[in-house]
């Protein structure tokens, strides 16, 4: 019988603790503090030297002082005004802090309760750059940040040109025209409710010099034709493609294309100049070369022999 009463008592205690925990968890955050930071929990009352003071954390007494005696905690746990000092906060110190004050007549005074939430501070990010055709992607990269799964732990990102904010939201990257951001100092900031950190500034090195439409012409030489792609003011990183009747000619990447004139008769050729910033294609070209003089002499000699015979 005594065992059953003991078990029932333990059950009641467990239920009570669970209820207290749920009540604390259900309350909103009054203050946010970074893990590792310091915080002063306000008393909300002007303490007198004759008052009795208790501080509780989630219902458990952590400090108790009478005018003539310190019962629980250390004297440097509080300030002269009775506020509670928290230093180098840990995650498990998040919760409900309540104070009780009784005057010398034993009357309880009005005090303030504070539900404290702790968050991991963010870490310094870096800006990574990806060059696309005519655009550049800036990405705010960092070591793992607080996961942001709680509503109050959302991570935000800000983007800056020369320390002037241009974007504020939750996107980790932004895409801009490479030409428009040439030589601009770009940085990003990551933050949450308790901390923020900003990256170093840098400029992208994506090639932003665009190519211009190339011209194309051919030169007859013996039994071949040499087709040349002329691109004015060519950027250093420009590359070439060649096309025959709209299809890419594989492995032809030079400024000139040498082909057999007879085999390429009535074919349409074009070239394309491109780099990371742009691409331009020439008009189509069809040559009128008829072959080498030796070939024509041989053909004429053959026809003469046929005629004489």
From TrEMBL:
PROSITE patterns: IG_LIKE, PROKAR_LIPOPROTEIN
Domain (Ig-like) ranges: 223-286
Signal peptide: 1-25
Pfam families membership: Ig_2
Domain of life, per lineage: Eukaryota
Keywords: Glycoprotein, Membrane, Signal
Subcellular location: Membrane
One GO location term (cellular component): membrane
InterPro entries: CD2/SLAM_rcpt, Ig-like_dom, Ig-like_dom_sf, Ig-like_fold
Annotated protein name in UniProt: Ig-like domain-containing protein
Organism listed in the record: Poecilia mexicana
